[in-house]
Each structure stands twice: as C-alpha cells, then as structure tokens.
Amino acid sequence: MSMKRRDFLMAGLALNLGSKALAQQGGGAQDRAGRRSETPVRVAKTTRLFKSPGLYPNALAVMTDSPGGLWIGQQKVTAQSAQTYHLPLEADRDEMAWLVDWNGKLLKTVKSQSRNTSGMAYGNGCVWMGANADPFGIFQIDLNSNQISHRQIPLSIDGNGGGCHGVKWHNGKLWIAALRLGGILRVDPTTWAPEALIRVSSEEKPRLHDAAFDADGNLWVVTGNNSTSYADGKAGLNKYDGKTGQLLMTVDFQPGSCDPHGLVWHDGRLISCDAGIHPGWKGMESPSSGYIFSIEMM
After folding, report:
1. Residue 176, domain CATH
2. Phi, psi of 183 (to 5 degrees)
3. Which one, of 138, 107, 113, lies nearest residue 124 by Cα?
4. What are the DSSP E strand ranges found in 113-192?
5. Residue 207: which of 227, 185, 190 has the closest Cα?
6. Is 35 exposed, middle or buried (0-12, 13-18, 19+ CB in 10 A)?
7. What is the pLDDT of residue 18?
8. What is the 8-class DSSP label of residue 9?
9. CA-CA distance, 137 to 188, in Å (whole number)?
10. Strand order, beta sheet including 137-142
11. 58-94: per-residue pLDDT in tens?
12. Domain count, the chain
C-alpha cells in the first residue's frame, strides 16, 4: 500500500472514532485566508544529566505525587534482539520502573511483566508500561508491583494491538504511540475506548517514539528515520496543537546529539533518555547510551 493511500485511510479512521477525534493532516498552520503556510523547523541540542539506575532506559514519566521525581522504564533485550545487538540475555525477564529524583538518585523500584518496554505513563497512582514485544499491550501496575490490568492497544482485528513506542497520561486519558496505527492514539483508561488519533509517521521520518505534553497543552512526539547506524540516524520532534492535532513545528537534532526514546516535559523543558539499543544499529552504539538528558532549542 502506498504511503499516500495509507495516510488517507488512517486519517479517515481517526475521524470516524468520534466527533472529538483529532487527525493530523500534515503541512503547517493556516492563515486567516485559509492559505497553507510552511511548518516552522527548529534545531535542538541535547545535554546529558545523569545515567539511568540500570541498563536500557527507554521510557519516562513524571511523578507529580509525593515524593515526586522521574520514572524510568527499562527495556530489556528479547532473545532475538540479544542476538542482533550482540548483548547478553538476562535470566530475569521482568522489567523495572525506577523512580529517581531529578539528580538521578534512586527512590523506588517497581517490577513489571511488560516485555521490551518502550513507553510508560504515571497516572491514577499507577505506572502504565507499554510492551513492544509479546505479549504486547499496556500493563497497569500499582506501586507495590501488583498488576492491575493488561490490555491490548485498541482497534486491532485479531486482538493483538501490536507494538508500542510511548505512553503518556494527560487530563485523565492515556495517549499511546501505536506503531500499527502510525500515530498517537488517545484512549479512555477506564473503558479502554479509543477516542482520537494523531497521525505522525511520514515518508521522511517513518519512526515515532514517545510523546509529552508541555505546559500549554501542546503535544511533542519523538520522530526518526530508518537508519543502520548512529552516524546516519536522524531523530526529530513534531509539535502538535493539543486541541486540534495540527502540526505546529518540526525539530531536527544537531549531529552528535543523544538518541531520544522516552520523553517528558518538566520545569519548562523536554527531558529524554538514550536506551542504548536502536533498531538497525549495533548495541550501545550511541555515545550517550543509558543517559537521561535535556533537550534545548537552538
């Protein structure tokens, strides 16, 4: 199926989810005369803050409840990816959510049965871990490591929701970076009903990763190209209007930047993490593997 036809079908799907559905149609904002303007493009740099408590940090969430801090979700390699990346396969397959303070000090550890975790949220007193490998789905876990629920990303025909690259809690809803849908899907965490879809994937940057809402309610999403090494990787960001889904800005990272995976907004800036594993690359190829880092616009 061609990219244009797939974009058309997915946009139609988003609009059919309900009257409140959001569908990103590409291009920039419109002026008052309805003319399409070019989407602004910015460049960003990254600054290392501290290292994760353990290997493969691939998801972030802000804890607003006491004691507060940053949740870091672990993405252990699968049996297949261990061979691909030439990395050891750990005997304990459970993956951790580490709560650290903003200097990186470990405060709490929660264990989950999520696999190849690639995205997490914190909300309603629980962590929500997005599994990017079998058994897939979103794992809701309380702070005592008790699993509350495990549900697949909605809108699949066969009950397998497919891969996940990001999860965020915002205004009582879950926003899921659904690879099968190529965008960010808003889901009611109680009924599990899908409510809105913002298309993200494009021909230039087909990869999408985690998402975060800024203080103004706008949605930022990590994007990237298909690459075979750190040297030819081209990560980016898309900024969307949180009320309409309209693309407001795209961001490219300067060469030598950390490799963004997870994403949160804290204290007026974006924070991300470098997992150390990236499809198509060698394991731990990025010089910033394992680091939590900030993102600054230049």
Report:
1. 2.120.10
2. -165, -170
3. 138
4. 117-123, 126-131, 137-142, 147-151, 164-170, 173-178, 183-187
5. 227
6. exposed
7. 41
8. H
9. 15
10. 117-123, 126-131, 137-142, 147-151
11. 999 999 998 899 999 999 988 888 888 889 998 889 9
12. 1
